[in-house]
Design a protein that fits this description.
Blueprint lengths: L17 H5 L1 H14 L24 E6 L4 E2 L6 H5 L5 E7 L6 E9 L8 H5 L5 E3 L14 E2 L1 H4 E3 L4 H26 L16
Parallel strand pairs: 1-7
Antiparallel strand pairs: 1-2, 1-5, 3-4, 4-6
Length: about 200
C-alpha cells in the first residue's frame, strides 16, 4: 500500500525561535503562576457539615418531575430517555392509564452506577418530565442501592423550579439563536415559536 505524504504549507507553519524550542519561557510562566497561587487566600468548605448549594445549571442526579396539582408524574413513558442514554442506565416500561396522557411508566429505573450525568435524557424529553437535580452526594454500600426506582425518583415540581426555569431560558435562547442563523441564510424570520420557524411573508 502506497503512503501519501502531504507537504505542509510554509505559510501555515510557525517557526519557533531558540527560547520557544527550549520551552524555558513556558516552564517559567507555569512556575510563576503556581508560586503566585501559594500566597492567595485559601478556602476550605467543612463538608459534609457545610453543604455546597450548586447553581441551577448544575447537572446532579436525574429525577422525575411530580405535578403537585394532580399528584401524577409528567412522564408519558415514551422511552426517549432510555434510547438516548449513552451508558444505558435508564429502563422504562410503559403502562396504560385512564388519565388524559394515556400512558405512564409502570417501571422507571435509573442505575446510578452507570449514569454519567450527561443530561441527554433531560434534553430529549418532550414533557420536561426528567431533569437534572442539584443532588450530588451519592453513596452506596451495595450495588442494588444504586438502582433508583420510580418512587425514589419522583420530586415535586416546586422543588425543581430553579432547574425548570433555567431550562426554559436555555431553550428560548437556543431557539432565538437558531432563528438568527437561519435568518442570515434565508432572509428575515420572526422569533421561533414551539420549535418552528415561521418566515415573514413579503
Amino acid at each position: 500500500m502506497a503512503i501519501r505524504i502531504t507537504q505542509v504549507d510554509p505559510k501555515l507553519s510557525k517557526d519557533l525561535n531558540f527560547w520557544e524550542r527550549m520551552y524555558l519561557p513556558e516552564i517559567l510562566k507555569g512556575m510563576a503562576y503556581t508560586f503566585k497561587q501559594m500566597f492567595q487566600p485559601t478556602f476550605t468548605r467543612q463538608y459534609p457539615e457545610e453543604q455546597w448549594i450548586p447553581p441551577a445549571s448544575f447537572r446532579g442526579r436525574p429525577v422525575l418531575v411530580l405535578e403537585e396539582s394532580t399528584g401524577v408524574e409528567r412522564c408519558v413513558a415514551c422511552g426517549l430517555c432510555a434510547r438516548v442514554c449513552p451508558p444505558l442506565a435508564i429502563f422504562v416500561q410503559a403502562d396504560e392509564t385512564l388519565l388524559e396522557k394515556e400512558r405512564r411508566p409502570a417501571i422507571f429505573e435509573i442505575n446510578m452506577l452507570r449514569c454519567i450525568f450527561c443530561g441527554f435524557c433531560e434534553e430529549v424529553c418532550p414533557e420536561e418530565a426528567i431533569v437534572m437535580s442539584q443532588e450530588y452526594g451519592l453513596s452506596f454500600t451495595d450495588r442494588s442501592q444504586a438502582k433508583f426506582q420510580k418512587e425514589q425518583l419522583l420530586i415535586p415540581s416546586a422543588q425543581l423550579k430553579d432547574r425548570l426555569d433555567f431550562l426554559h431560558e436555555y431553550k428560548d435562547a437556543e431557539r432565538n439563536r437558531l432563528a438568527e442563523q437561519v435568518g442570515k441564510v434565508t432572509g428575515p424570520h420572526v422569533p421561533m415559536v414551539d420549535s418552528q420557524i415561521i418566515p415573514v411573508q413579503p
